[in-house]
Specification:
Number of strands: 7
Largest sheet: 3 strands, parallel
Helix content: 25-40%
Strand content: 15-25%
Oligomer: single chain
Length: about 180
């Protein structure tokens, strides 16, 4: 969403993005998505392999004199800003989009699943807003990341699977392990 909003705003404001612009992405998937807006071969694109900002830091430090623009959601933590500030990297954060609950989530919709998987605290919030009387019962809940796991606990729900864990680094691997596959 950050990429889409960034390029849309640049277009609306008639800002020409220079060919020398460098892009630092947390994953290769995000880097490849940039092809929707730029010619991938002509730009300098850097990405990490684990999806964590710490993995991207060596590339950022090689370009320490650049100024970094960090697009993000209104629901974010300050990990990126703190990391860049700690390494004396000039950066500016901008909220490019709002995260809102999906009103398509109904008790009937949620009730047809054996497991709910959350990747952000916003997903847990969406469940609470759209299904305030949700009773977990036999429904398993899985989360990816410690803040999402804490959001489930804070909501008074039972956390059945938390990833990454000692058995798996991805949610897919954690579910496979959980199901005994």
């Amino acid at each position: 969403h950050g990429i889409d909003h960034f390029f849309h705003l640049c277009q609306e404001m008639r800002i020409t993005i220079p060919e020398t612009m460098k892009y630092f992405c947390v994953t290769e998937t995000v880097a490849l998505y940039l092809q929707k807006y730029i010619q991938y071969r002509k730009r300098k694109i850097f990405f990490g392999s684990t999806g964590k900002i710490n993995d991207l830091l060596p590339s950022i430090l090689k370009h320490k004199n650049e100024k970094y623009f960090v697009p993000q959601s209104d629901v974010h933590n300050d990990d990126i800003k703190n990391l860049l500030d700690a390494n004396n990297i000039v950066n500016t954060e901008a909220v490019m989009y709002r995260t809102v609950p999906n009103d398509g989530i109904t008790p009937e919709f949620v009730g047809q699943f054996d497991m709910l998987v959350f990747f952000s605290p916003a997903g847990v919030h969406s469940l609470r807003v759209n299904c305030p009387d949700f009773q977990q019962g036999e429904v398993k809940i899985a989360t990816f990341g410690s803040t999402t796991a804490q959001a489930v606990r804070d909501a008074g729900l039972r956390l059945d699977l938390d990833a990454p864990n000692e058995h798996a680094h991805s949610m897919t691997g954690a579910i496979d392990w959980f199901l005994g596959l």
